[in-house]
Each structure stands twice: as structure tokens, then as C-alpha cells.
Amino acid sequence: MPDDLPEEGELVVATVQNVKNFGAFVTLDEYDGREGFIHIAEVASGWVKYIRDYIREGQKVVCKVIRVDREKGHIDLSLKNVNAHQKREKLQAWKDEQHANHLIEIALQKAGIDKDAWMTAWGSKLIDKYGSLYAALENMVEEEEGTLPEASKEKWFKEVLTVAKENIVPSKVTVEGYLMLTAPGKDGIIRIKNALAEVKRYRNLNISYLGAPYYRIIATGKDYKSAEETLKKGSNLVIKALVSNGGVAEFLRERK
Questions:
Q1: Residue 78 contacts residue 64 (beta carbons within 8 Å)
Q2: Contact yes or no for 245/183 (Cβ under 8 A)
Q3: CATH topology of domain 85-167
Q4: How would you classify residue 73: left for phi > 0, otherwise alpha for psi between -120 and 50, otherwise beta?
């Protein structure tokens, strides 16, 4: 579970409880229903004549935390400082985490294990390592015991893994670029093929021929960071192999 209070600048999911002319009172879904307040000046950019044109009771909203009084427990929020992309991303992450919690509860019930005790012993470790329970379940589906090696021996692991495999489809992010490869001489094409063979060990990397001298290189990963790292490593391997063998190689983000 998150800390008792959010941090300034954090995006939070909230449920609108009470709308007044001067602002709206909300409860924070990820912080055990703690109350937060959105002043009318933070509801929308520009002048707000009727606040209910923008926010209403029962609505799920994504807000940015702008001030936290930790002594009094007051939390001030902004609705206008969250763009559409941030809202979609945050709501999806929140829904995924709700789904993960539900699946884990089902699995732990089958294993006869108390959820609160499990969160203290194992859930917190998974969140620390992967950032969320949903991300941990995704990894569990892909790597099984690689999630937490010591956890694979626990009696709950098999139940959680089974439920995760039945309900979780690991997300994939794809990034791409282009390799411009040339090699002089009659054996030029062979040297290019040998250079491309350097990345065969990468399961999540694919290279296709587009027409001399261009090749498309596509990398997949659990997130953009890991996909970009794979793209970079794979491209560098091909470039190094071809250049060291008398060829010319260049990585391009977009085809010329």
C-alpha cells in the first residue's frame, strides 16, 4: 500500500464526493479514502462560471497533488494541470492495479493465506521491485520463478501464478528504427548477413530488409525504456560487426 499521504506533484485517482461553488471535496482511492480538495481555480483553465459543468459527484477524476500539509493532513489538488494523456495513463494503471489485487485475493483464498499478512511479507517486496502488483504479475507470467526466486518455493506462488496466467496478458511496447548498411566488393552481402547474425540471440528483436541499403529494426519490451535499450544494443552490435569488417553502417530513427 502507498504511504499515508501522497507526494506533491503526484498524480492520484479520486472520487468526487461533494461539489460546492468554491470547489470540490474528493476522496483519494489509492490512499484509503483520504480527503482532498480541488479549489475552483484548479478545476479548469480560465474562468469557471458553473463548476458542475466540469466536475460532479460520483465522478472518477485524476488530479495532481499541489500541496500537502502533513501536520494537518490537508491535501490540495489540481484538475486543470492534468492533460488527457496523463489521465488515460493514470486511470489505466489504477484499473490494472485493482485487477491485480482482485486476482491475488482469489489466489490467496485458494491457498488459505491472509491477504494483509501476504502484503506485509511479499506484496511490499513485489511493489518495491516492479512498481506495482500488476507489473509483478506480468513478470510472473513471463518469467515465473524469476519474479522473486525465493517466492517460488512458497505455497502461495503456484496459486498466484496460475491465476495470473489465466487472466494477465503481458503488455508489449514496440519501438523501431532503420539501419543503413553497405559493404563494397563481391562478398559485401555476405558481410552484411554476418553482421545481422550478431543479433539472432535477441528474441525481442527483429530485422527486415526494405531494399538496399535499408533494413528496419524493431524491438519489443515491457516498457519503452527496455525496448529502447534493446534497440540500441542490437543496432550497435550490427554496426560494430559490419564496420570492423570493412563496411559502412548507420542507425537512423527515420528513413531518409
A1: yes
A2: yes
A3: DNA polymerase; domain 1 (1.10.150)
A4: left
- Nearest CA to 190 out of 244, 239, 245 is that of 245
3-state SS of the chain: helix, strand, coil percent to 5? Answer: 45, 25, 30
The conformation of residue 7, written as its DSSP 8-state character, comes to P
Residue carrying C-alpha cell 514496440? 174
Q: How far apart are CA 177 and CA 217, in angstroms?
A: 5
Q: What is the DSSP letter of 222?
A: S
What single-letter amino acid sits at 108? L
Q: How far apart are CA 34 and CA 4, in angstroms?
A: 9
39-92: per-residue pLDDT in tens? 999 999 989 999 999 999 999 999 999 999 999 999 999 999 999 989 998 999
Q: How far apart are CA 76 and CA 38, in angstroms?
A: 6
Query: What's the predicted TM-score (pTM) here?
Result: 0.63
Are 211 and 176 spatial neighbours (Cβ–Cβ below 8 Å)? no
Which sequence spans correspond to the domains of the chain?
A: 11-81, 85-167, 173-252
In terms of CATH architecture, what is 11-81? Beta Barrel (2.40)
Whether domain 173-252 has CATH 1.20.1290.10: the reply is: no
